[in-house]
Amino acid sequence: MTTSDRVPAPRWKREAELVSGRVAQARSQSARGLPVDKVMLAIVLGITLFGAVMVYSASAILAERNYGNQFYFLGRQAMWVVVGLVAMAAAICIDYRHYKRPVVIIPLLAGTLALLVVVLLLPRINETHRWIRYGRYVSLQPSELTKLALVAFLGFFLERKTKAVESWSTFVRAAIVGGVLITLVGAEPDLGTALALGLVFLTMMFQAGTPVRYFAALAIPVAPAITYMLLKPWRFQRLLAFLDPWKYQATWGFQPVQSMIAIGSGGAGGVGFAQGRQKLFYLPAPHTDFIFAVIGEELGLIGAATLVLLFALLAWRGFRAARFAPDLFGQLLAVGLTTMIVAQAFFNISVTLSLVPTKGIPLPFVSAGGSSLAISLFAAGVLLNVSKHGKA
Predict the structure, then answer these.
(1) What is the pTM of this model?
(2) For the chain, how are helix, strand and coil distributed in percent, rounded to 5?
(3) Contact, 160 vs 327, CB < 8 A?
(4) How far apart are CA 203 and CA 198, in angstroms?
C-alpha cells in the first residue's frame, strides 16, 4: 500500500498528537526560559535607587547629629542594596521549582520558627523584640524571613494538596502553621507585619481554591486576639489618636500629625529635594517608617503619586507572572510574594496618610533597613524567575 493509500488517523488521535506537541513545545520553552521581565526589573531597580537617594535626604541631618557623618545611613543603605541586588541576581538564576523541595521548605520553616522564638528572649530594642543584632552593622528581623517562609510553605503545601484543597482538614493544617508564624510575629510586637502576613495567607488560600466559607472560621481565634491587643493601653491610645489625631497631637497623635503636615506642605510639586523641614527632628523615623512623608513634602503630589503608580505597576507585573506561571506552585509563589510587597507598601503609605492607625512597617525598597531591603529584593528576584518560566 502506498503512502497516499493509507487510511488517515482518527480525528481524536490527530488532536491528541497536536496537544502532545504543544505540551512538548511548552515544556521545551519552559526549560529554556523566557527573557527576564524587563518592565518588572526596571521598576524594582528604579524604586531601590530612588529609595537610596531619599534615605540620604531624610537622614543626613539626623546622621550628622548622632554619628558625626551625614552619609552614615546612606552608606548602610548602599551596603544592603549591594547585598540585596546580589541576592536578587541569584534568585533570578535559580529555578523557582527548587524551592518546593522538602529539603528547602522544612529547614526554612524550622529555622524561621526558631528565630522567632529566640528574638522574644533577647533584650528589647526600641521597646520591641524585633531584631537580632550582631555588632554594629549586622542585624536581622526574623519577621522579614517569616514572609518568605510563609509564602514558600503555603505554595509547597497547597500544591501537594491540590486534589484536597477544598477539604476542611487541608485548611486547618495550613491555618495552624500560618497562625503560629503570625502569632509569634504579633508577639514581638509587630502588628503591621502580622496583618500583612495574614493578608498573604488569605490571598494564597483563595488563589489555591479554598472555599470562602472557611475563612469565617478564622474569626474564632482572631477576634479574641485583636480584642486582647486593643486592651493594651498604648494601642488603645493609638486608636483614639487615629480617630482624632489633632486632639492628641502632643502625645499619641504626634506621629500622624507631623506626617500629614509634611505631606500637606509639599503641595503639588514639593518644596524641593533635601529642602524638607519636617525631617528636622519633627517627623519621627523620617528615613524608615515615615519616609513617604518626606517624599510627599519634598517632591509633592507628583513625586508621591509616581511612587504609588510604580508599586501599582509592580503589582500588575507580579500578578501577571502568576497568571502565566506553568504550575500551581509558581502561581502561588508569585501571588504570595506580590501580595507581600504590595500589602507592606499599602500599610506604610496608609500610616503616613493617617488612613490606618500608626504601626511600624517599612516601605519596600525605599525605607532604610537591612534585612527588610535584602529580603524584598530577593523576593523580587524570585518573582522575576517565575516570570521567566511563564507560558506567555
Answers:
(1) 0.86
(2) 70, 0, 25
(3) no
(4) 9
The mean predicted confidence, pLDDT, of the chain is: 84
Which of 314, 311, 279 has the alpha carbon at shortest distance from 295?
A: 279
Phi, psi of 269 (to 5 degrees): -110, -5
Omega of the bond prior to 221 within 30 degrees of 0, cis? no
- What is the amino acid identity at position 310? L
Burial of 156 (0-12, 13-18, 19+ CB in 10 A): buried
Residues 388, 34 contacting (CB under 8 angstroms): yes
State the pLDDT at residue 188: 80
Domain boundaries, the chain: 36-246+321-348+370-388
Give the separation between CA 357 and CA 379, rounded to whole angstroms.
Answer: 27
3-class SS of residue 45: helix
Rounded CA separation 220/209 (Å): 22
pLDDT over 90, % of the chain: 47
**Cα 237 to Cα 242, 252, 357, distances in angstroms:** 9, 6, 10
- For residue 111, pLDDT over 90 is answered with yes
Separation between Cα atoms, residue 87 and residue 383, nearest integer Å: 13
Contact of 262 with 294, CB cutoff 8 Å: yes
In whole angstroms, give the CA distance from residue 256 to residue 242.
8
Three-state SS at 139: strand
| Alpha helices, H only, 212-323 | 219-230, 233-243, 254-266, 291-323
Element (H, E) at 132: strand 132-134
Distance CA 183, CA 116 (A): 10
Rounded to the nearest 10 degrees, what angle do helices 142-160 and 168-186 cross at?
Answer: 180
Grid coordinates in use for 318? 507580579
Q: What is the mean pLDDT of residues 10-28?
A: 44
Write down the pLDDT at residue 22: 44
Q: What is the CA radius of gyration of the chain?
A: 24
- Selected residue with higher pLDDT from 117 and 11: 117
- Would you place residue 119 in the very low, low, confident or very high pLDDT band (cuts 50, 70, 90)? confident
**pLDDT tens sequence across 162-177:** 888 888 988 999 999 9
